[in-house]
Amino acid sequence: MKKVALGSKPLRIDGGLPILALLALAVGGIAGLIGAVFRLALEWSDRFRDAFINWAHAKEIGGFALVVGVSAVATGLAARLVRKFAPGAKGSGIPDVEAVLHEEQPAPPLILIPVKFFGGVLAMGAGLALGREGPTVQMGAAIGHFLATALGRNRDDVKALLAAGAGAGLATAFSAPVAGAVFVLEELVRRFDTRTTIATLCASGSAIAVARLLLGNGPDFQLQPLPYSGFATVPIFLAVGGVAGLLGVAYNHLILSALATAQRLGRWLPGAGRAATVGAAVGLLAWFRPGLVGGGDSITQLALAGGQNMIVVAGVFLVRFALGPLSYAAETPGGLFAPMLVLGAQCGLFLGVLSCYWFPYLGEPPTAFAVVGMAAFFTAVVRAPVTGIILVTEMTGCFTLLLPMLIACFAAMTVPTMLGDPPIYDSLRTPSLRRVAPANEKDGQAAFPGNQDF
User: Fold this and answer.
1) What CATH number corresponds to the domain at position 82?
2) What are phi and psi of 405, to 5 degrees?
3) Beta-bridge partner residues of 333
4) Within this chain, do residues 266 and 186 fall inside the same structural domain, yes or no?
5) 159, 258: one domain
6) Domain shared by 147 and 83, yes or no
7) How many CB atoms lie within 10 A of CB 139?
8) pLDDT digits (tens, 9 = 90+) for 56-77
9) Pairing with 447, which of 75, 229, 314, 396 sits 20 to 30 Å away (CA)?
């Protein structure tokens, strides 16, 4: 594949590590501020949606039409913003960041940030099952690239600061600074590089320091203390990982099938129309089951609290398993991480209840399986086990399940690999799902045309 310049001009500033670290701190601070405000906006939109649906139920048929119509309009408007101003802002954005780092496409323009921000609030506020981390990662990467090129950094530093901004975005999305840094090394650049590591650690640290001023301290999920697992549970957690691996393969195929179907429908239904249709379907579900739509943090929290009926857990899993790919096919801003964590928690909890029924002598609480399931399902889909383990540990504050997560993630990584299923972000970078226009490299500056579609 033809390489695309990242847009850095010849080196004008000393390339020493101290300057790189200072710039990374600035990138992380800005990314943390924008990411924290984005999270607050999403929380407000979730509360507004719930209040609106409650109010609309009193209006009966008229209220039903309003809920479906508002969801359709908001989703269609999000897609319209993307198509008109920044086509690269659609979807997760993580495959695009990877493509930029591999010089397969030009870096995003600054206009992507407001489009990703407001488009994400509209789409996720409408109830689409998308994650906040995709927008924060891509916005952070855009910030890193802008500052690096504006200050004339060399090519390597542009890459390092772009990757550092992406890691800062993930750290802010889940209050997980270590996972943000590890994600850059394990998934984005896929190698250990000293300058990238230093920049990423600095950016993730400063992002969390700024974000916590607005979001507060503590993990995203509340979890009762869990005991260390005994050796007898090893086969059980291997089985959990194996099941998660199979489900992850199915989920990857469903996402890609949904995107391919949406592209085929594009011949008869424009992009905004397709998105509005998806939004209407989500609004219909929200009318009857408002707790099932949106990013899903509340669903994950319920699973981590335990005590749910197995039929309910299975039903929630099946609905969300279909809702995630459907929402992603709308091609509005939004990520995959949060919906994956929902599915992992439901899958783990279901298997945990079965384990307690079949093997009560093990004494392993079902919530432990929910935590392990989150890491295992993430690994099965993304194929980044270290990131998955650290991310779930930081989000739950649970450090006693590291060994079970390691065992389950081993199985969740092995099963898809043996089946020949590629990681989801590798699949999303394929030309059939991402149309890339040639870059204009005049004066070494890569362009990002407004009509370009990724």
Assistant:
1) 1.10.3080.10
2) -65, -40
3) 91
4) no
5) no
6) yes
7) 31
8) 999 889 999 999 999 999 999 9
9) 75
**Closest C-alpha among 40, 29, 41 to residue 210:** 29
Structure tokens at 276: 């509005």
For residue 340, being part of any structural domain is answered with yes
| 432 domain-assigned | no
Over residues 218-229, the pLDDT tens digits come to: 889 999 889 898
Taking alpha carbons only, the member of 363, 371, 358 closest to residue 306 is 371
- Distance in angstroms (rounded) separating the CA atoms of residues 72 and 390: 37
- Rounded to whole angstroms, how far apart are CA atoms 360 and 128? 38
CA distance 183 to 175: 14
pLDDT greater than 60 at residue 213? yes
Q: Coil, strand, or helix at residue 131? A: strand
Asked if residue 336 and residue 303 are part of one domain, the reply reads: yes
Same domain, 238 and 200: no
Same domain, 103 and 251: no
Q: Which domain holds residue 49?
A: 17-218
Asked if 285 and 53 count as a contact pair (C-beta separation under 8 A), the reply is no
The model's pLDDT over 72-116, given as tens digits with 9 standing for 90+, comes to 999 999 999 999 999 989 989 999 999 999 888 888 889 999 999
**In this predicted structure, what is the pLDDT of residue 443?**
35
Number of residues assigned to the chain:
454
What's the pLDDT tens digit per position in 269-298? 777 889 999 999 999 999 999 999 999 999
User: First CA to last CA across the chain, in angstroms?
Assistant: 16
The total domain count for the chain is: 2
Query: Is residue 80 assigned to a domain?
Result: yes
183, 218, 253 — which closes off a domain?
A: 218
Shared-domain flag, residues 145 and 265? no
The separation between CA 67 and the C-alpha centre of its own chain, rounded to angstroms, equals 26
List the Cα angle 39/40/43 in 5-degree steps.
Answer: 90
Strands of 19-102 (E only): list them. none
- In whole numbers, what is the pLDDT of the chain averaged over residues? 89
Judge if 190 and 300 occupy the same domain.
no
Query: CA–CA separation, 261 vs 197, rounded Å?
Result: 39
Can you give 206-270 as a three-state secondary structure string?
HHHHHHHHHHCCCCCCCCCCCCCCCHHHHHHHHHHHHHHHHHHHHHHHHHHHHHHHHHHHCCCCC
Q: Where does 266-384 have alpha helices with state H?
A: 271-288, 297-305, 310-328, 337-358, 366-382
| Residue 11 lies inside a defined structural domain of this protein | no
Amino acid at 315: G
Buried (b) or exposed (e) across 21-30, using 16+ Cβ within 10 A? bebbbbbbbb
How much is the pTM? 0.90
pLDDT computed for residue 431 by the predictor: 54
Helix (H), strand (E) at residue 113: helix 112-125
Residue 305 clears pLDDT 80, i.e. is over it:
yes
